[in-house]
Write a structure and sequence with these properties.
6 helices; 5 strands; 36% helix; single chain; Rossmann fold; globular; alpha/beta
Amino acid sequence: MIDNSRPLAVFDLDGTLADSAHRQHFLERKPRDWDAFFDAAPTDPPLAEGVRLCLKAAQECEVVYLTGRPERCREDTVAWLAGQGLPAGRIHMRRNDDRRPARTTKLEVLRGLGRGREVRMLVDDDELVCDAAEQAGFRVVRARWTGASEALKDAQEREGRT
């Protein structure tokens, strides 16, 4: 049962909790191999700093996951989160056919979550998502503990894939 009195802590996955560096090479080729990129996600190592922050936030907040991964990755994502010992929580994923930029889709979800609930923080590595969330009045923790490739940044903005 969800406790609606607790504030929300919203966490991104790739580059925040999951180290996706080992699969970014799939995005550096032309055409980009999105199927292989997402198929390799279950083998992502955890990012210790993000995991620590998530576990700490869970002491006071309901943890919600907000990712640009497509809905077809849900089963693998649920298993990965559980395998890392991360708290169970709602997972908001992109529709399989949604190609809007992450800053658009994530801000839409954040606004929905913030209706009637305090969003204590958004933790994300995408600078454009962070900028948009801050401009909308959300408290943002920028996950700068890993570096995303230029191919991934371009894909997030131009192709709306993650």
